[in-house]
Specification:
Rossmann fold; alpha/beta; 350 residues; 13 helices; binds 2-acetamido-2-deoxy-beta-D-glucopyranose; 44% helix
Length: 350
């Protein structure tokens, strides 16, 4: 009965809106789930005992209500923007948030954790949620979803959802600093990270996921902090790191068709995050950016997380900066990236 009334209300609402937006169709995905690091984390780290947090000023300065939420940027992130463009909702709620509504649960939540990587070890120092823990949280999520909509509808929602994964940068930036580098060369390390990435997709598939988008690594050698650590007075991107990122990406792109073939009924799409981002860095003025090697927060050379705070000086116009802090892009970059995803990755899902 309640369902019938709800359906009627939905029909009435949609018949009044079809006049103005006749092109409006059903959302392409029933829900979207996000797994990964700070590029996607919309606030999970606020609920775990870690210092890797962005829930203080000047983060969120251009977020609705000028509110710091844990998002490492001045405004919304790709998960928020993609959810909105794909007609699900305006934001991507962190799963660890206490008061999630039933509707939040039904249209997808976010499991990403800033500072994390595919490897458990990457999260150990920062005490964040590695991919394995994020996948475990997805199991908890499934129990909640089944409680709300029942077993059958839950399976339908998961089957028609999109699972978006973007991680790995923190694994590699840790690799460069760690002793691991002596024991394992970069090629071997890339392979070991890729094994974890594949295992994560397989496990999410076994839990009912069918449609996956896997992002490659961005050109992280161009982040202000990596440039600063390299000590280059001309502040050029760290070529070695960018080359390593590209090598990892081509391995990832090559293995996905085989992975898709081995998981019957799956669709696994590669997202070239490197190209999406490099296009902006190579043509900043085309996109209206003036500063590409310093963040907007503080000196822009090394401040991130707790070091980017209310006492930090802040740039006058964040829209002309590619980076908001020494690691993370501004909302304007995320908007351009979202358009890239909508153009290049989403159409590959039928
Ligand atoms: C801020 O920068 C953007 C992008 O370059 C530009 O379009 C806008 O006019 C600037 N705003 C101000 C107040 O200067």
């Amino acid at each position: 009965m309640a369902h019938t009334i709800l359906l009627l209300v939905v029909l009435l609402l949609s018949s009044t809106t079809t006049i103005s937006t006749s092109k409006r169709t059903q959302p392409k995905f029933s829900a979207i789930f996000y797994f990964g690091d700070s590029v996607l984390d919309t606030g999970n780290n606020n609920y775990i005992p870690t210092l890797a947090v962005g829930n203080h000023a000047p983060y969120g300065r251009n977020f609705p209500g000028r509110k710091p939420t844990g998002r490492f940027s001045n405004g919304r992130l790709v998960p928020d923007l993609l959810n909105e463009k794909l007609q699900l909702k305006e934001f991507s709620p962190p799963f660890l948030e206490k008061d999630l509504s039933n509707n939040d649960i039904m249209t997808g939540v976010n499991f990403a954790s800033a500072g994390s990587g595919f490897e458990d070890q990457t999260s150990r120092l920062s005490n964040t949620l590695p991919m394995s823990k994020q996948v475990n949280l997805f199991k908890e999520y499934l129990l909640r979803l089944r409680n709300i909509v029942g077993e059958k509808e839950a399976s339908r929602i998961i089957e028609n959802s999109l699972i978006f994964i973007s991680s790995g940068t923190n694994d590699f930036t840790r690799y460069y600093r760690s002793l691991k580098r002596k024991k394992m060369d970069i090629g071997e390390y890339q392979d070991s990270v890729l094994r974890i990435a594949q295992a994560s997709v397989k496990e999410l598939f076994s839990l009912g996921g069918r449609q996956f988008c896997l992002a490659g690594l961005p050109p992280f050698g161009c982040t202000p902090i990596q440039i600063t650590l390299s000590g280059d007075p001309d502040r050029a991107c760290v070529d070695e790191q960018n080359r390593d990122a590209q090598a990892y990406n081509s391995k990832l792109e090559k293995l996905l068709p085989a992975l898709q073939g081995s998981l019957h009924g799956s669709k696994i799409v590669y997202l070239d995050a490197y190209q999406a981002f490099k296009e902006i860095l190579d043509n900043p003025t085309k996109y209206g950016f003036i500063e590409i090697t310093r963040g907007c927060c503080g000196t822009g050379l090394r401040e991130v997380g707790l070091l980017c705070n209310a006492l930090s000086p802040i740039c006058r116009n964040e829209s002309s900066f590619v980076f908001y802090d020494a690691v993370h892009p501004t909302e304007r970059v995320y908007r351009i990236t979202t358009d890239y995803i909508l153009k290049n990755a989403i159409p590959q899902f039928s």
